[in-house]
Amino acid sequence: MSTVESEATTQNGHVGRSLRRKEDPRLITGQGIYVDDIQLPGMLHAAIVRSPEAHATITSIDVSAALARDDVRAVMTGEDLAEDLEAPLAMLWAPPGTEIKAPEHWPIARGKVGYVGQALAIVIGDDRYGVVDAAEEVIVELEPLPVVVDVEKALEDEIVVHEEIGTNKAFEWSLPGGDVDAGFEEADVVVERRIVNHRISGSPIEPRGTVADYRAGELTLWTSTQIPHIVRLVLSMQTGMPEDKIRIVTPEVGGGFGAKLQQYHEETTLAVCAKKLGRPIKWVETRSEHMTTSHHGRDQVDYVKIGAKRDGTITAIHSKIIQDLGAYHMLLTPLIPALGSFVMSGCYKIPNVRTDIVGVFTNKMSTDAIRGAGRPEATHMIETIVDALAVELGMDPLELRRKNFIPKEDFPAEIPIGIVYDSGDYEGSLDKLLGMIDLDGFRSEQAELRERGIYRGVGFSTYVEICGLAPSRAVGPSGLGIQGGFWESAIVRVHPSGSATVYTGASPHGQGHETGFAQIVADRIGIDPQQVDIVHGDTGAGPMGMGTYGSRSLAVGGVSAAQAAEKVADKARRIVAHQLEAAPEDIELAEGSFRVKGSPDQGMTLAEVAGAAYVPENLPDGMEPGLEETNFYDPENFVWPFGAHACFVEVDVETGKVQVYRYVAVDDCGPAINPMMIEGQVHGGIAHSIGQALYEQVVYDDDGQLATGNFVTYALPTANEIPEFETDRTETPSPTNELGVKGVGEAGTIAATPAIVGAVVDALRPLGIDFLNMPLTPMRVWQSIQEAQERGEGPRATEQGRDLPAEARDSAGSGPTIPPGQEPGPAHGGGAA
Amino acid sequence: MNPEVPVRVSVNGEAFERRVEPRLLLVHFLRETLGLTGTHVGCDSSNCGACTVQLDGEAVKSCTILTVQADGSEVRTVEGLASNGDLHPMQEAFWANHGLQCGYCTPGMIMAGVDLIEENPDPSDEEIRRALEGNLCRCTGYHNIVKAVRDAAAKTREGVTA
Do A220 and A285 have their domain in common? Predict the structure, then answer.
């Protein structure tokens, strides 16, 4: 555990210390300003009329009753706004070299709807409560069309979501490495699984919200987003307003988790309506709207197959990902499963790897990035199938992992799909984990407890993730072929009195950039982090930037801030050298002073340097005044954090209830900037996965009606369901950047689900269970136990998996798998299963 | 809009008389009528607890109470915790223990924590977790929130005995 520090100092060496967060004083006193806290003079409120049907043509929308109200200023339908929009909502990133079928997706529906909750009209009026009343008075006539919600059924094209496209198959894309057919030929053992990685919601506690204000030819849009600059670019494309006349501000953002890595229709609609009406407008999502129309994540059916020699050497892995896209592409919808394909061989040396992806439309809300975005799905696949392979081989699952780990000395390691893992020590993190848990002790306790009818289990996950999105040359048009990479920008501006402001294109929503970036910059320019203010999330205040997602902020934005600070320090050294008549290379930064090496009493503080820079009477020839530098940093490679997790559960076999009672994690994200904040990210990430593995699921019924539209039916874990965490780290620097840092925002979420499910399977193996699909609700676990008992399985059956089609294998005993079209119930209270 | 009715509510020790729509939720009265935006709204179903305040000394979810029900009552919000510039021990403990990330659930979490230790000055971890069951956090995994409440309880006990 890290110890939190608070003493102020101008020594360098702030990096690596658990300093208290600079963000917190305003947040613990209620002084933070979130979007819904903004009130502007003359501000109107908006409510959205949404489709009650999942698939329908729009016959008519009668707005007259709503418009007749005294407190309503305007009601707009999709047709009403047609003149004001130059382009539909954007899909910016997709797998390379693939023709993608993309339906037109307008901010407010035109002609037809494709999912429940799709916008049909916006009602704008004086009062927050009044517009909700008025929205009820908008009379919509819809002609229902047949609905398809199951992704495998949708692939059959009996019902198509977009008649004009004629098929639900939006694209196919493959990422091959080596020769999987040859790899399976070589294998002595082949294991297959059908894994359903169910649909989840991001559910930050702050719902989305937007305030639009158009005056004097300029639009200011406050919005709860992770990507202010990208929102500006897309809004400009849609509305035709020039980018320089649009300012996007993200005030405090109350969590994102990917759900705010999006450009949403309400932002566009409010921008256009604010311009039309000449009044500021606020719209804030209700929780029900979040569940219905903020994009969802996961929702894949995965067929995964692994082959190995008898000695455990893995020869091939093949996965087929059937990705439920929902009804429309959003910003990155088709790219998400592709992100998983980059880590489909996990931390193992597998010579033959192939991922085949098919993207499929259904009459549901779009899927897109939710914390981890494709990589939790990949990790779940590989860790689950490696566990299954171990059983098949009769090997210890950790021994099997060790046998196939990419060895430490192989890094940087090129993997068969052609990308390079930067650094790793997979044995090291597993060793450290095992040092924390006393596995032998647990195994004997487990055996004893089983005698008394108490079922406990342990599950493991050794993971690697791809972070630091994304090196332009590797992924851009001339590399992998994606529509551009993601660099980051920073300005370090030293003020005349010696304090500094840093502008970053990263856009935090809880991560603590204001503290971490201040630590990085402070060390490089010789002041206290308290004197370094970080400005983010305002397109009017800093250079174009790419925002925060994909665990990228530190490894790309933090490095950019460090490089900008180094440029400032270089200039400071040249000024000091000039003033003290020394050589610039002889000036070192120590104890808060730029001083001459060997003469510690000869030096200047940053404030003194700034004074000299802004009163430029004695600067080196040709040097510009001022002390401010800009940096754009485009990384050379991704970064590859990794680690080893162990989850311990107890299962009540009478009720099916699973309790995680211990969770131990060792993560490696390179050298720590602030260990306390790393722990916080890991805790939250694991909790997110405990939610997915045990409680959370977005459920649609066969008519495409959402059954989980609020926090009663969509069960976020509470403090009661989450254990204390035991965390530790190893530090393997990345050679990709000078800080050596990787990323940790998604690590826990990417790692945890296979460890949790593996623990439950381990607990229930004596009852004949060796495979389970998430979420492990009491009902599903209980039913699985009953089914295993009915099959008459005592101790585990081992002869399954090989060369059987999925359905036959399911019935032959590899555990229950949900038949197509049948969704399990919500977390609390059973439900549709 | 329905005819407005008069209410008198004391918030953080200050008396307010206002005329409000009868269906106005207490949380909107605090946030929009009085401008005390520290109390947040996170759901429609009183599950998330972001709107937790104390009403006559009891923690309540202010999204589930009509302003007219609070007529004649005393309300305490997160803005009323610090005194003379000194943070409340619960605020201090959330800061010291990294008990928050995005800060959105934090005011409600802090109010729930304050309410707990006023009733139970020495709660066990299990009691803390149970007391916070009505407050959802998506960022922290609760670990550091539990630690913060434990720390605030200990500091408060020390403060009382010192």
Answer: yes
Helices (H), ranges, chain B:
26-28, 89-96, 106-119, 125-131, 143-161
**Of A369, A401, A423, which marks where a domain is finished?**
A369
How far does CA A435 lie from the centroid of its chain? Answer: 30
Is there a single domain that holds both residue B103 and residue B65? no
Residue A474: the pLDDT is 79
**DSSP characters for B72-106?**
T-EEE-GGGT-BTTBPPHHHHHHHHTT--SS-SSH
| Dist CA B158 CA B141 (whole Å) | 28
Of chain A residues 191-220, which have a CB less than 8 A from chain B? 203-207
Helix (H) or strand (E) segment spanning residue A760: helix A747-764
> Are A314 and A252 in a shared domain?
yes
**Which tokens in the block code for residue B25?**
């939720």
- What length is written for chain B? 162
What's phi and psi for A343, nearest 5 deg?
-120, 30
Helices (H), A37-96: 64-67
Q: Cα dihedral sign for A211, A214, A215, A216?
A: positive
**Which residues form the domain of B134?**
89-161
Alpha carbons B85 and B88: distance in angstroms, whole number: 9
Q: Render A265-285 in DSSP notation, one character per residue.
A: HHHHHHHHHHHHHTS-EEEE-
C-alpha distances out from residue A481 to A121, A468, A740, Å: 38, 18, 27
Contacting residues of B for A718, CB less than 8 Å apart? 129, 132-136, 142
Same domain, A604 and A522: yes
Q: Which chain A residues touch B81 with a CB distance below 8 Å?
A: 29
N-to-C CA span, chain A: 42
Low-confidence ranges of chain A (pLDDT < 70): 1-11, 793-833
Q: How confident is the model at residue B26 (pLDDT cuts 50, 70, 90)?
A: very high
Peptide bond into A775 cis (omega under 30): yes
What are the E-state strand segments in A217-313? 218-223, 246-249, 281-284, 296-308
Whether residue A659 lies inside any domain: the answer is: no
Instruction: With beta carbons under 8 A apart, name residues in chain B contacting A21.
Output: 95, 98
* Residue B161: predicted pLDDT: 62
**CA distance to partner chain A, nearest, from residue B116 (Å):** 14
What global pTM score does this model have?
A: 0.94
Strand partners, A50: A119
**Count of the separate structural domains present in chain A:** 2
Look at A181 and B159; give whichever has higher pLDDT: A181
Euclidean distance between CA atoms A580 and A588, whole angstroms:
13
Please name the helix (run of DSSP H) or strand (run of DSSP E) that holds residue A665, with its range, or none: strand A657-668
The answer to whether the Cβ–Cβ distance between B78 and A725 falls below 8 Å is no
Q: Which residues of B touch A716 (CB under 8 A)?
A: 136, 138
The neighbouring-strand residues paired with A490 are: A504, A631
Is the CB of B133 less than 8 angstroms away from the CB of A29?
no
Report CB contact under 8 Å: A255, B100: no
**Is A187 in the same domain as A211?**
yes
Give the residue numbers spanning the domain of A238: 35-369
Q: Is the domain of B47 the same as that of B94?
A: no
Q: CATH code at A619?
A: 3.30.365.10
What the block records as the tokens of A803 is: 């060369």
Across the interface, whether the CB atoms of B104 and A257 are under 8 A apart is answered no
Q: Is A660 helix (H, G, I), strand (E, B) or coil?
A: strand
Contacts of B45 in chain A (CB under 8 A): 287, 710-712
Supply the CATH number for residue B104's domain.
1.10.150.120
Burial class (CB in 10 A: 0-12, 13-18, 19+), A799: exposed
Question: Are the beta carbons of A403 and A612 closer than 8 angstroms?
Answer: no
